[in-house]
Write a structure and sequence with these properties.
Layout: H1 2-24, E1 44-46, E2 62-65, E3 71-77, E4 82-87, E5 92-97, E6 103-108, E7 113-118, E8 124-128, E9 134-138, E10 144-148, E11 150-151, E12 154-155, E13 162-164, E14 170-174, E15 196-200, E16 206-210, E17 216-221, E18 227-232, E19 240-246, E20 253-261, E21 266-273, E22 279-285, E23 294-297, E24 300-302, H2 309-312, E25 314-318, E26 324-329, E27 336-340, E28 346-351, E29 354-359
Antiparallel strand pairs: 1-26, 2-29, 3-4, 4-5, 5-6, 7-8, 8-9, 9-10, 11-12, 13-14, 14-15, 15-16, 17-18, 18-19, 19-20, 21-22, 22-25, 23-24, 25-26, 27-28, 28-29
C-alpha cells in the first residue's frame, strides 16, 4: 500500500510539473503547430526573387504563446523588451517578455481593446473599440488619458487600429466591428454617418482625414512618412490597401490610389512597413462562400467556402509598388503584426489564438 501511495504521489507530482511547464509555454504546441527541424523553413515562401534577401536561411517560425480567442494589435516596447497585444473577446491585454519567454495576462477589463501602438515618449496608446469606444493613452503612473471619444459631438464608432507620426500626431481608423455584435464587445447603434480615418493633432484637435472608405481597418505610414496606407475591409468589392499622399505639414491627405487588391477570397487586416518600404500584411481567407449550395451528403446542401484557410493564412509581403514578393504561411489567420527585438528584425504575428515570431533580414520602420 505505501508503495502504491508513493507511486500515485509521484504521478500526481509529474502531472503537475507537466501542466506547469505547459502553462509557462502557454501551450506552445497546440493548434497543430510543430516547429520546423529543417532549414530553411518551408513555410516561408519567396514569391519574387527580391524577397530572398529578407529570408534568413536558419530562422524558423516559433509559437510563443496561445490560448487567446482573437489576437490583435501587437506593439513592441524596446525599453523593456516586451510585446503587448490584445485578446479582444476575452477583454484583456497580453504580454510577452523576450528575456524570459513568459507569456501572461498584462491587464484585464480593457474595453475590448483592439489596435495598440506606442507614442514617441514610450507610452501605450490603445483603441478601446467597444463600450467606451475611444482612443486612450496609458501614462507612466498607470493613469488613463482619453485622446478621442467623439467627433463633432457624436460618439466614435469602434476605434480599430492606430499609429503615431513623428510629429506626435495620432492617426486611427474607426470602422463598425466593435459594435456590430456581442463577440468583440457590445452591440450598439453607430452615431457617425461614415466610417473614417481620424488625425489627432499634437494640440488635441481631431479631424477626419478620410471619409470615403467602408470600414477602414489597418493603417501604416511609409518609411519616409510621405504616404499613409489604409486597409479597406469592404466595399471595393475586395479588401484593398489604399495609398494617400501626406501633405508637407502632415495634416491632410490627397491622391487616393489603390495599391493592393486582395482579389477574391484573400483578407487583409493589419500591416507594418519595413525600412525598405515593403508592406508586411496580415493575410488569410475572407470566409467568402460560393453562390450556390453543394451536396455534402446526408441529404444536405451547404454553401462551401471559396478558399482554403490552410493555404491562405499567414503574412503576405508586398513591395512599395504593391507587388507580392513573399509569404509566411501560418496554421492560423494573422490579424496583425509588429517588428520587435533589439534590432527590430523579429517579426511578431498575432494570429487568431496564438502569437508567432520569425527573425527576418528586414527591420521595422521607426
Amino acid at each position: 500500500m505505501p508503495h502504491a501511495m508513493n507511486r500515485r504521489k509521484l504521478l500526481k507530482t509529474a502531472s503537475a510539473t507537466a501542466l506547469g511547464a505547459w502553462g509557462a509555454a502557454a501551450g506552445a504546441q497546440s493548434f497543430g503547430f510543430a516547429p520546423q527541424q529543417r532549414y530553411p523553413d518551408p513555410s516561408v515562401f519567396i514569391l519574387d526573387p527580391s524577397f530572398a534577401k529578407y529570408r534568413i536561411y536558419s530562422s524558423t517560425i516559433e509559437q510563443l504563446g496561445t490560448g487567446m480567442r482573437w489576437a490583435e494589435g501587437p506593439v513592441y516596447f524596446p525599453e523593456t523588451g516586451t510585446l503587448i497585444l490584445s485578446d479582444i473577446p476575452n477583454n484583456r491585454l497580453m504580454k510577452y517578455e523576450e528575456k524570459t519567454g513568459k507569456f501572461s495576462v498584462h491587464k484585464q477589463g480593457v474595453n475590448y481593446a483592439n489596435g495598440n501602438t506606442r507614442d514617441r515618449q514610450g507610452r501605450l496608446i490603445s483603441c478601446e473599440h467597444s463600450v467606451t469606444r475611444r482612443v486612450v493613452r496609458t501614462e507612466r503612473d498607470g493613469r488613463t488619458t482619453v485622446l478621442a471619444d467623439s467627433y463633432q459631438g457624436k460618439r466614435l464608432n469602434a476605434p480599430n487600429d492606430v499609429v503615431v507620426k513623428s510629429d506626435d500626431s495620432v492617426w486611427f481608423t474607426d470602422p463598425l466591428f466593435g459594435i456590430n455584435g456581442e463577440w468583440e464587445g457590445a452591440r450598439a447603434t453607430p452615431e457617425q454617418a461614415t466610417t473614417n480615418v481620424y488625425r489627432i493633432a499634437k494640440d488635441g484637435q481631431i479631424s477626419a482625414v478620410v471619409t470615403d472608405i467602408v470600414n477602414p481597418n489597418g493603417l501604416a505610414f511609409s518609411s519616409d512618412e510621405k504616404k499613409l496606407y489604409v486597409i479597406e475591409w469592404k466595399g471595393t468589392p475586395h479588401r484593398s490597401v489604399w495609398s494617400f499622399d501626406v501633405s508637407a505639414d502632415g495634416s491632410s491627405l490627397s491622391n487616393k490610389t489603390k495599391l493592393i487588391d486582395a482579389d477574391g477570397p484573400g483578407a487583409l487586416d493589419g500591416m507594418r512597413v519595413d525600412r525598405d518600404g515593403n508592406l508586411w500584411c496580415g493575410w488569410g481567407f475572407s470566409g467568402a462562400l460560393s453562390a450556390q449550395p453543394s451536396d455534402i451528403g446526408g441529404g444536405m446542401s451547404a454553401y462551401l467556402p471559396l478558399g482554403k484557410s490552410e493555404e491562405m493564412d499567414g503574412v503576405k509581403v508586398f513591395n512599395p509598388q504593391g507587388k507580392p514578393i513573399g509569404f509566411i504561411r501560418l496554421p492560423e489567420r494573422c490579424a496583425n503584426l509588429e517588428f520587435g527585438g533589439p534590432k527590430r528584425n523579429r517579426l511578431y504575428m498575432a494570429s487568431s489564438h496564438s502569437l508567432y515570431a520569425l527573425y527576418v533580414e528586414a527591420h521595422g520602420a521607426a
